[in-house]
Specification:
Strands 1, 3, 4, 6, 7, 9 and 12 form a seven-stranded mixed β-sheet that branches. This protein has strands spanning 4-7, 13-16, 21-24, 37-39, 51-53, 57-61, 70-74, 82-84, 97-106, 110-120, 123-134, 139-148. By secondary structure, the protein is mostly beta strands. Helices cover 0% and strands 49% of the residues. The protein is built from no helices and twelve strands.
């Protein structure tokens, strides 16, 4: 089985239930060599690829995990608001398996989700990659080491 790695933010949509969430890199002890990745962001300098979804504003934060920076999303007014990262469909292909992981922290008790948004004709589909809850102020790892991108 050929599992490709995508770390830090791989899904098209990253959502959290908290009003403010922080998104940080995956620690090196949990990740392998950088060239094993299609998408790998350390949040220290590579944050321009991320955008807010809905009313969210995305900005750099000094509240990172292990290093000094993270992404902060603020201004959420609905559950689906969060951080998003567009994926290149020539890299991430339907039917292939990928390892997806990211660290999150909320200012309140929250359920964090990594979701892949894709279209099938006129329909928009939201496929769950991983969901996990955490207590306020605690970091939580979301990881699915064998996420298979849907074929349709």
């Amino acid at each position: 089985m050929n599992v490709k790695r995508m770390a830090a933010a791989v899904s098209a949509v990253i959502m959290a239930a908290g009003t403010v969430c922080y998104f940080s890199e995956v620690p090196e002890t949990l990740a392998s060599a950088a060239d094993d990745y299609y998408y790998h962001y350390d949040m220290e300098s590579e944050t321009d690829s991320f955008a807010g979804r809905g009313s969210v504003t995305v900005s750099a934060s000094t509240d990172g995990y292990g290093k000094s920076k993270a992404l902060e999303c603020s201004g959420r007014t609905a559950e689906w608001n969060g951080i998003q990262l567009p994926l290149d469909d020539t890299v991430v292909k339907p039917g292939e398996e990928y390892s997806v992981s990211a660290l999150f922290k909320g200012k309140e008790n929250a359920e964090f989700k990594i979701t892949l948004q894709y279209g099938t004709g006129d329909d928009t589909v939201y496929d769950k990659v991983y969901t996990r809850s955490t207590a306020a102020g605690s970091w939580v790892m979301l990881s699915n080491t064998n996420y298979k991108v849907p074929s349709g």
